[in-house]
Amino acid sequence: MRYQPNIYRLILFFSLCSFTMTAQSQKQQELEAKRQAILKEIQQINNLLFTKRKEEKSILSTVEDLNYKVNVRKNLIKITNDQANLLTREINTNQKEISTLRDQLTHLKEDYAAMVVKSYKSKSEQSRVMFLLSSENFKQAYKRLQYIRQYTDYQKEQGEEIRRKTEKLQALNTELLQQKKDKDKLIEENRLAKQKLEEDVKEHQKLMASVRKNMSSYASQIKTKQQEADRIDREIEKLIREAIAASNKKAGKSETTSKGFSLTPEAKALEAKFESNKGRLPWPVRTGVVKVKYGKQRSLIDNTIEINSNGIRIATDKNAKVRSVFNGEVLAVQSTKNGNPWILIQHGNYITVYKNLSKVYVSKGNQVTTNQDIGEVFTDPSNGESMLSFAIYKDSKFQDPSVWIAR
Predict the structure, then answer these.
(1) Which end of the chain is more exposed for a tag (fewer CB within 10 A), N or C?
(2) What's the Cα-to-Cα distance from 368 to each of 211, 277, 328, rounded to whole Å?
(3) Which keywords does UniProt give here (predicted)?
């Protein structure tokens, strides 16, 4: 019975295989979830940035949109490659396990066949009785009886083990075939994704060649837009500082030493609820893609120009409704001389900012609730772009909105 001495090593081997397969399966699920999210993002990019408005757009906007889509496609290809590579490792693991199972089944069947022959030769009841009666004493007879029972049970166990391993082998073979199909499908999808990426890159390069002919003019436009954004941000920061000072004055605190709002118990509770929803706040628009991320970054047109974004810029549908991301009170509704309105909503020490609006539905002092419509996004008639600028402050300090809203 060669199988029995190796039973613990086999159990350990299959336990390790099972653990590895479970870990790989979880990783595969995570990668598939990411891939589906990217596919959805690409669909939104096409719907929001490239449907019916392509001819209306300025060359700058089109280049930026193409660059954005190229980067997303590259990410899709990377994730799909990771999935295919993981499937390759899973296939190799399954093939090794199948090979080991086949070897074990061979040994099990050989041992079982030997037991059947041995049992057949001594199967008569008389042989068993004689085996017991030939015992020298009662203790030996008892031990022989136990052996007969254990041997019979072991025969049954071996037969059952052969059945279980045969079924597992069949299941693994089925799984292996499915994994190979899944891998072939991923490889084909990646081939198509790379083909589309090449098309986008060629179009991007063609437009960039046109841009380079008049780079100074385009660079000037980028700098002007950044200067206007910086000016509005300074106005917002000034307004917030004034609101903080007013709240402290009302509470009888020093306006100069306190850097945060003086909050009522209710406002503190609201702030705590806001913080507890970090990473789960709804988007300020129902559909959209983040076209400009938070923080300092190089211009996609001229990499010598640095762009500083104190929030995120979300491309969305024409005249899209803007909604409050959380319960709060409207701190201010403002607009610049030649600019579009913006709204500040206070949530305890946190303030959310919604810029580049065409319509405003609320007024200063109004109480708003989560997902309540507060205005509409401005759609630029010159290029058909609908872009919401969204920012979050804690007191007068910037926060990265992308870590606060749901992904």
Answers:
(1) C
(2) 44, 17, 5
(3) Coiled coil, Signal
